[in-house]
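Forwarding the complex inputs:
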Amino acid sequence: MPGHVIATYVIETSLPLDQAAETLAGEQSTGTFVRVERESDQVRARFAAQVESLEEIALTGGSALPGTVGEPAQRRRAVLRLRFPLDNFGPSIPNLQAAVAGNLFELKELAAVKLVDLDLPIDFAHRYGGPRFGIAGTRQLMGAQTGAMIGTIVKPSIGLSPAELADVVGELAAAGVDFIKDDELQGNGPSAPLAERVAAVMPVLRSHAERAGRMPMYAFNITDDIDLLERNHDLVVDAGGTCVMVCINMVGLAGLAHVRRFARVPIHGHRAMFGSISRSPQLGFSFRAWQKLARLCGADHLHTNGISNKFYESDDEVLAAIAAVRTPLADTKPTVPVLSSGQWAGLAHATYAAVGTSDLLVLAGGGIHGHPDGAAAGVESMRAAWSSAEAGGSVREALASSSALRRAVEAFGPARE
Amino acid sequence: MPGHVIATYVIETSLPLDQAAETLAGEQSTGTFVRVERESDQVRARFAAQVESLEEIALTGGSALPGTVGEPAQRRRAVLRLRFPLDNFGPSIPNLQAAVAGNLFELKELAAVKLVDLDLPIDFAHRYGGPRFGIAGTRQLMGAQTGAMIGTIVKPSIGLSPAELADVVGELAAAGVDFIKDDELQGNGPSAPLAERVAAVMPVLRSHAERAGRMPMYAFNITDDIDLLERNHDLVVDAGGTCVMVCINMVGLAGLAHVRRFARVPIHGHRAMFGSISRSPQLGFSFRAWQKLARLCGADHLHTNGISNKFYESDDEVLAAIAAVRTPLADTKPTVPVLSSGQWAGLAHATYAAVGTSDLLVLAGGGIHGHPDGAAAGVESMRAAWSSAEAGGSVREALASSSALRRAVEAFGPARE
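Prediction (whole assembly, two chains):
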């Protein structure tokens, strides 16, 4: 099979840079700590990972990973691009990961090693297929052809009975929200099993749809053991549900690709636990690399975080994540970036100014449920702010024309310009 | 459902410790960044995660995770134990992870957050079942009732044709090895598809078994998309294979549990990519916590690394990992610790002295294939060293009685006492 994968890393090492690069390339392809009998030149020529480029960059001051060998004073940082023959693993994402993101994180030669990008041949898109629905399919199902898609997370995250959940959903639907999702903490626990949530929520949504002519999309969290995913999905879809949520890292990228095979509705891809592989600046995966795999595996929606969020990422990082998800990936359908975490109406103008598109799913949890006049007013504040921003209005104008937005600002602080 | 999970973290924060602990507990159960309408005291009492204990410990000098809030000079470190009601997620490992290891890694209140242990109620063991074969089942299948189980990884990791692989396996079997495995880089690529490897290797192993009365266990790497795992497993077992290898992190813990449901042979659990969630001292998972989940999900064998390895871990860390895997876990069968990475005969005495058991699978890749007299001599050196150590002999005595060991020492350096 012709073709190759380019994996881009940021590395640090106290060894000569080219030696560290060769160690990494060897360990991840034909080599081990000694040259062995059958590691012939022919084998190396055909199967070894090759250093495509190695460019020194400035150190950033981060601590070396533990166990690093060499003189700390010799430490240097570089961008390394390695070329892996596709023949080594084929277009299999699990086996690709063993090559580009396996044991290498444990190499003592490396004081930092972060996979920051992946260039994949088209074979991966053909095998995995990417999103089945994407932006257009999502908009059609939720009946929201234009404007930012305004959504919310059920709060409190857990603890509502199915009957209470149905009440909340009824309120939100009446307030005109486009999208509602289970919290990632609400899986299939004994206190509110998925089947009971579906049974409680779907009649409310269907009866709303009969009156209003459109039904908000509800992303039921179907995350669970692999052998329960299809049953959970069917339970939602057979009841008329139009979206399933999967915590990608809890079922693995492989689990996501599995769901994609039978999914009849968009897959809402939650990134919980992503921080464990990404927050260290010295280790793991950048969002840019990881999101390509998640999109190939079928995420119709993918969490990118939002500006002024409650987590650690800066606005620049968030905007880069949104841009990454919006960048075309082979011939796959575009995935919807999902802005979440500490979002509220006062962030609409700044977000729209920075992103320049309405093809976003903007989720406010506390920003809607915590609105001083209740969830319906919370939805109203979001809609008013986003409509204003999209129409080129200013924050001041939006505040003047929406009391729900003024009340949101009283509760959550000044709106960002 | 009664019962609870205790998750133990090491955290750092520049906020008051109890405030950071409450933020973590709230974010991972009923709370969000504002108190919302239905987060009643009753909901909190039943569903909120509770701080079980919080004990300050000394800072270690690691860099704060990026995006951390608060005054750096105020930073403190603590061991935090949180109690989560089982009712929130039930005994579902994917949904457990959303609670104990989800968004929390991204909290800006935390300058470090590492999940270092998990105490799980028996419900998890009953749902997942743990290893089907464990130590006893593995020993029986490989015909190695006593002594350390001596194994090797096919080297070069990739690049051998199926016919060349069959030659290597024939040599290793003749040399009396107990166990052979595919490298984690050898998945199901076009250059050596699993089906061709199985077809080439199994006749060699079977014909060896007819002569010798026992067959080495060969762990074929079946890692691939979820929907291929059962087919790959069946391909191995139907051909008479006695082990399958799964790269746990490439298919997810959920993928491992999926394989366990249909596995008719032991599952060799490889930990490639584990470094990405563990090598940072400030972030992610300790091996102690992670290995419990891998064992529950059915890993009959689990990689722990070995002493004097080629990766970053110190001997103390490796020995703690081996001890962790050997610690009983509910009523599950014991998993075989797999010592790998840079292992060779000269480490036998030091390993046995430190570990005090032969219920280990010791893998030497380069240490066997890179032996100056070839792989058969490599196996002989391993067997001689381990037999000596287990019989209470010294390194000096072992060297005196084994020329294969002496030759290994010439190639790989002095043996460790």
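Residues 134-412 of chain A form a domain with the TIM Barrel fold (CATH 3.20.20.110).
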